[in-house]
Amino acid sequence: MGSKGKKNWRIVAEVIGGLAILTLVFCWTATMGVGQTKKGEEPKRGGTLTLVSELAPTGGFDPVYSLSYWHLGPVTIPLMSGDFFAGPAGQKKVTWRYAEQEAPEFMTKGLAESWTIPNPRTIIFKLKKGIKWHNKPPVNGREVTAEDMKWSYERLTKTPSSGIPEIEKAQAGGKITYTAVDRYTFKVEYAKADMRSMFTTRDWYRHTAKEVIEKFGNQNDWKNVVGNGPFLLTDYVEGSSLTYKSNPNYWEKDPQGRKLPYIDGFQILIIGDRSTRLAALRTGKVDLLSEVDWRDAEDIMQTNPNIKTTGEYIINVPYVGFNSSVKPFDDLRVRRALYMAIDENAIVKGYHKGHSSLVITGMQPPGFPMVPTMAELPASTKELFQYNPEKAKQLLKEAGYPDGFKTSMSILARDEPYASLVKAFWAQIGVDASINVLEVANFTSQLYGFKFPSWVGRWGFSWGNWSWVFQPGAHWNFTRITDPTLSKLIDEATMNYVDWKKWVKDWKAINIRVLDQAYEHLIPGPNVRTMWQPWMKNYSGELYLGRTGYFLYPAYVWPDKGK
Questions:
Q1: Which helix (H) or strand (E) holds 507?
Q2: Which H helix or E strand runs over 275?
């Protein structure tokens, strides 16, 4: 090993030694589930699951105001949702491990029975017949119709906080038209051809029933939530737990024609403390924990040899974000310098002891066809993955910062290990980055208000979301990117979702452009495991049924502790 490599391992070791928190469970939607069933084994009906989330719901229970939808996932299904049985429990064609849009043939379990795209500005959904709203006042179990979709999306479009008005203005050509063609046919038309708008329409936003809003004004109170999914929300203790009961009128059946869900319901405990979450798994107080850092997973497998687990995998990627609209981050040379100043291999081998890997892109998970290999990257992009502090210093000098500069990185407490690593590496090229630790609400507010010069956060793999991250005026364009070349690539790619091969090719080009411009620096994160109790059945590590299929998998699993 060369002297530079040894030095960087010492940097990593010094940072690690100074941290109070050495390892964390990383996903804000840390979830729980059940274990694989034997072939031909009959589901055991009844029983409940105890799941867990690291963070409480953000923004309430009305989708036009909420900043996240994971707590509404089991309550209200979108127009398109993933088929659980296309995964390990059935066809084994997808993993359902990532919050990622899979190919269209696997997204068949939402409200829409089918959909057509007659032209690049129009998408037409044929709704399934017989899907009903939950049987509670004031909706009382009536059928879901195209008029519901029209009314709900028009409400979303009229509410600034929902994000759709920005989409309408910036991407959809200034106008989105919703039409209930008949009882089961819902048409969406955009003034400008842009498939990203269609993604948002079909599987991102949750819907509300007109009667609820007319009676209560909004759906902020959890007691007023009425959905159409496999579970009803029956209790919420703020900062403590959410409780869901199975919907007896849910429409879906398993491949053998058996009614779903199998279980009576489940509870999500909100446990912010990592050690408490791990202790709850060890003692059997919770049934499954996802995204367990490899360090913790190794320890649990020693103390609980019967625990079930997936292999190690990467899911949420730590990253450094730059506000490219302000100095010095508006200069590509500065962003590239900061990229090359970080020795990613030292982080993989030193901090993670080899239980990690370089991540080419945060848009799609490793191994997805849209992800370019290192060999496919142009020379200028490959250079970013090669630790080169001398080249970084030269770039800073060319940009007018021969002595470096001062900046700040805003973070959540959970990301302090990565911020400390970045700070140490940047210091080697003269960049002095102070670390500003914020609590969740303050961090989220400032991030969405574009207040940070730089920050450390997490991205989950999901190209449907990322198409909004890199567009001028977009709700999630935290890096404040204005890149005509990138916008053109995205515009061209999003014209067509029918030709999957072309789609893959186009998105690979987008990935390369984003990388080459160094808008964000992905940091090697930890390999993780999903771990669950041996009594959990029909579970193999599924977490999301599509981009927004949060907490839907409990409808397909059951506990069996025997006598």
A1: helix 500-516
A2: helix 274-282
238, 220 contact by CB (below 8 A): no
Q: How far apart (Å, rounded) are the C-alpha atoms in residues 433 and 405?
A: 8
The residues that bridge with 123 in the sheet, in sequence order, are 188
One-letter amino acid at 303 equals T
* Nearest C-alpha neighbor of 121 from the set 495, 507, 504: 495
Residue 22 CB coordination number (10 Å): 12
| Helix, strand, coil in percent for the chain, rounding step 5 | 35, 20, 50
Question: Cα dist. 91→20, 287, 347, 448, 552 in Å?
Answer: 45, 25, 37, 40, 18
Amino acid code (one letter) for 111: L
8 Å CB contact between 36 and 537:
yes
Q: Which long-range contacts (CB under 8 A, 24 or more apart) does 251-254 make?
A: 251/128, 251/130, 251/131, 251/132, 252/109, 252/555, 254/43, 254/85, 254/556
Taking alpha carbons only, the member of 459, 476, 458 closest to residue 467 is 476
Q: How far out from the chain centre does Cα 341 lie?
A: 28
Side chain identity, residue 450: F
* Residue in 497, 516, 515 with CA at minimum distance from that of residue 506: 497
Q: How far apart are CA 255 and CA 109, in angstroms?
A: 13
Put residue 485 in one of left, alpha, beta given phi > 0 → left and psi -120 to 50 → alpha. alpha
Q: Which of 153, 131, 149 shows the shortest CA–CA distance to 141?
A: 131
Task: Residue 494: name the closest of 522, 463, 524, 519 by CA.
Answer: 463
- Side-chain half-sphere of 202: how many Cα atoms within 13 Å? 33
Scanning the structure block, which residue is given the tokens 């959905």? Answer: 227
Closest CA to 376 of 550, 501, 509: 509
Q: Coil, helix or strand for 319?
A: strand
Q: Among the residues of 308-388, which ranges form H helices?
A: 332-340, 344-346, 379-382
Cα–Cα distance measured from residue 494 to residue 510, given in angstroms and rounded to the nearest whole number = 11
d(CA 398, CA 145): 61
The helix (run of H) or strand (run of E) holding residue 294 is helix 294-303
In order along its 563 residues, the chain shows pLDDT tens digits of 444 455 565 555 555 444 433 332 223 233 333 334 445 578 999 999 999 998 888 888 998 888 778 999 999 999 999 999 999 999 999 999 988 777 778 989 999 999 888 887 888 999 999 999 999 999 999 999 999 999 999 998 888 877 777 666 666 667 889 999 999 999 999 887 766 666 666 666 788 999 999 999 999 999 999 999 999 999 999 999 999 999 999 999 999 999 999 999 999 999 999 999 999 999 999 999 999 999 999 999 999 999 999 999 888 789 999 999 999 999 999 999 999 999 999 999 999 999 998 888 877 777 778 889 899 999 999 999 999 999 999 999 999 999 999 999 999 998 999 999 999 999 999 999 999 999 988 998 888 888 899 999 887 665 555 566 777 777 678 888 889 999 888 877 776 656 777 878 888 898 899 999 999 898 999 999 999 999 999 999 999 998 888 999 999 999 998 75
Smallest CA-to-CA distance from 520 within 354, 404, 361, 372 is with: 361
d(CA 73, CA 92): 23
